[in-house]
Amino acid sequence: MYEALRLPPAPDGDVSKTGARIPPAPTRGDEGLAAELRLACGERSVIAEQRTAEGMTTLWVDRTTLPDVLRHLKHGIEQPFPMLYDLTAVDERARQHHGAVADGMPAPAFTAVYQLLSPDRDQDLRLKVPLDEGEPALPSVHDVYPNADWYEREIWDMFGIQVDGHPHLTRILMPPTWEGHPLRKDHPARATELGRYTLTEREEEREQEALRFRPEDWGMRRSHEGTDFMFLNLGPNHPSVHGVFRIVLQLDGEEIVDCVPEIGFHHRGAEKMAERQTWHSFIPYTDRIDYLGGVMNNLPYVLAVERLAGIEVPERVEVVRVMLCELFRITSHLLFFGTMAQDVGQMSPVFYAFSDRQRVYDIIEAITGFRMHPAWFRIGGLAQDLPEGWDELVRRLVDGEGVRLHEYERMVLDNTIFRARTRGVGAYDTSAALDWGVTGPGLRATGLEWDLRKARPYSGYDRFEFDIPTGTRGDSFDRTAVRVEEMRQSLRIIRQCLEHMPAGEHKARHPLTTPPLKDEMQRGTMHDIETLIHHFVEIGWGPDLPPGEACVAIEATKGINSYYLTSDGGGMSYRTRIRTPSFPHLQMIPAIARGHTVADLVAIIGSIDFVMADVDR
Q1: Both 290 and 144 in a single domain?
Q2: Tell me, what DSSP letter sits at residue 9?
Q3: Rounded Cα distance, 336 and 359, in Å
Q4: Are residues 166 and 297 in the same domain?
Q5: Would you place residue 7 in the very low, low, confident or very high pLDDT band (cuts 50, 70, 90)?
Q6: Would residue 386 count as lying in a domain?
Q7: Interatomic CA distance for residues 116 and 138, integer angstroms
Q8: Counted domains in the chain
Q9: What is the pLDDT of residues 249-281, one digit of tens each?
Q10: Domain membership flag for residue 294
């Protein structure tokens, strides 16, 4: 075991019947939180309290007191909320149902939604800010939570919500010349709803001029009179940036003085597409968010839909989902590991890693029929049950024939050149990680033992024994070593799935399970037409979900991924918010890259482990 890694001691608390540790109860609930905020920030600071399907504490907050409320929640209470987990908005103008709420809840034209996270409390907190239709505006809170910067630019870009006091309120996902705000309800959802695209010579010149980078606009300054800026464009098409991603570097020789990441090249309107697809037919779209995560992308979405629908899946479904997710965690980490070693100059590891990765994909394909994008999870269950012979394939993997972790450790982590290129490079501590919204291996590399599979077990993770590897320095080496050990823990979980796979059905017997079990349809064809019609409608249109809101988060391959779904009582989502881990991770690059060299930046980017589709959605 490497000195960079720390595994927790064996638990000495309560254990479940399977031997898995029972997660402790939250250290503090939400009792009195609204009253405390009213006392500290004014009686009008909290307007109302709302009940939601997932049970998250949800408070409506007055716009004028928002900075004071957030500052108090981060600095003024015991066990504060150090992370702004997400910030988004909702265009409420077409919504019919606002859910079960206390008296006095607003009915705004737009709502800004802030979600905070407290690892110490093991608690999430949602704050909603009602906004008027005319000129919706908010005060910036980037001085309270640094990662609010990109999120505030996103709600301006997507919804046209003005953020007063933001240092650079510009488009972030859409092109700078784009007209309109795509996530407003009056913006077209399909290209066929827009006019024919044309580009005159003058318009082309305008587009080119809009792409010009002006350093002064981004706060960059000359070191002294008589000097000029020296810039290097890294990307948007360069192997070391791992996708269509651009970083403009301001250099003093090889040293990075400042840098500006530019994203949005891969934006496809995933959240907008969710509003035009049925609940059922959007599942394949989720595969393409983190396109290396496979069914890991399906899981938070179907869990959120099941929470809205009130569906409880059989135990067998939970265990199969866990097994497939951990297989995809391994394939994703193997790709990271091979390319990370390649980025700093090693050639052999990427071939070993890709060879092992293909063996894991062979198992995934044998079970689901597809390799990278199986879209195999369903509302209420799985596409089908496990095939015959699945257990023998998985047994070969966990018995050591599939992933050569010991060889990887000797080849890369013990390599003196790799250590020299990564130790102390791009380091940050736990406090900085929480400030910037870092989750997953990037957070655990700082020493914080925070993993949703343990902290808030979902899909039956409380039945499994596994450890949470952590680092000590929070640098590029630790982020790599943590992921290697996570693959070992994933194999440990998969072995338990193999040895304790429960019997039972692969779908829930619930009227909103989509599609329904086939035996119910077969009985319907013989006895009543209603069952056949129900099956036909569920396949073609999907279910109608009751009005409500639900946010479900999981420990995905690159950090915490969640789907925040709003149902207005129909067959499609009224609002789908996809919170991805890669988006905040890239925002942190300037803070950890300044003072390093360009070669160091390549190692930093590789150690973050991001996917641009996960960033841009």
Answers
A1: no
A2: P
A3: 16
A4: no
A5: low
A6: yes
A7: 17
A8: 2
A9: 888 888 888 888 989 988 989 999 999 999 999
A10: yes
Going through 476-587 in order, the beta strands assigned E by DSSP cover 548-555, 560-567, 573-579
Is the pLDDT at 365 greater than 60, yes or no? yes
The closest of 271, 264, 292, 266 to 558, measured between CA atoms, is 292
- Tell me the pairing of strands 162-164 and 137-139: parallel
121's tokens: 């409390």
> Residue 129's domain is classified under what CATH number?
3.30.460.80
The answer to whether residues 432 and 546 belong to one domain is yes
Main-chain phi, psi angles of 427, to 5 degrees:
-85, 145
Which of residues 153 and 227 earns the better pLDDT score? 153
Work out the angle at residue 217's Cα, subtended by the Cα atoms of residues 216 and 220, and round it to the nearest 5 degrees. 40
Residue 413 maps to which CATH number?
1.10.645.10
Contact status, residue 29 vs residue 125, Cβ threshold 8 Å: no
CB 509 within 8 A of CB 426: no
Rounded Cα–Cα distance for residues 216 and 222 (Å)? 9
SS3 content of the chain, % helix, strand, coil (to 5): 40, 15, 45
346 is written with which tokens?
A: 């090693």
- For Cα atoms 455, 457, 458, give the angle at the middle one, nearest 5 degrees: 140
Return the SS3 of 240: helix
- How many Å apart are CA 437 and CA 430, to the nearest integer? 11
319 residue type, one letter? V
Residues 6+ apart with CB under 8 A from 339: 242, 350, 606
Residue 256 is assigned to a structural domain of this protein: no
Asked if residue 243 is part of any domain, the answer here is no
- 106, 90 contact by CB (below 8 A): no
> Which pLDDT does position 25 carry in this prediction?
35
Tokens of 322: 């866990």
Q: Among 120, 144, 171, where does a domain finish?
A: 171
Which of residues 113, 145, 171 is at a domain's end?
171
Over residues 209-236, mean pLDDT: 76
> What integer pLDDT is reported at residue 20 of this predicted model?
33
Angle (CA) 447-9-116 rounded to 5° is 40
**3-class secondary-structure state, position 483:** helix
Residue partners of 232: CB distance under 8 A and separation at least 6: 248, 249, 251, 598
- Residue 592's domain comprises 270-616
**What is the enclosing helix (H) or strand (E) of 381?**
strand 381-382
Burial of 227 (0-12, 13-18, 19+ CB in 10 A): exposed
**476-499 helix and 315-343 helix, angle to the nearest 10 degrees:** 150
Q: Return mean pLDDT, the chain.
A: 86
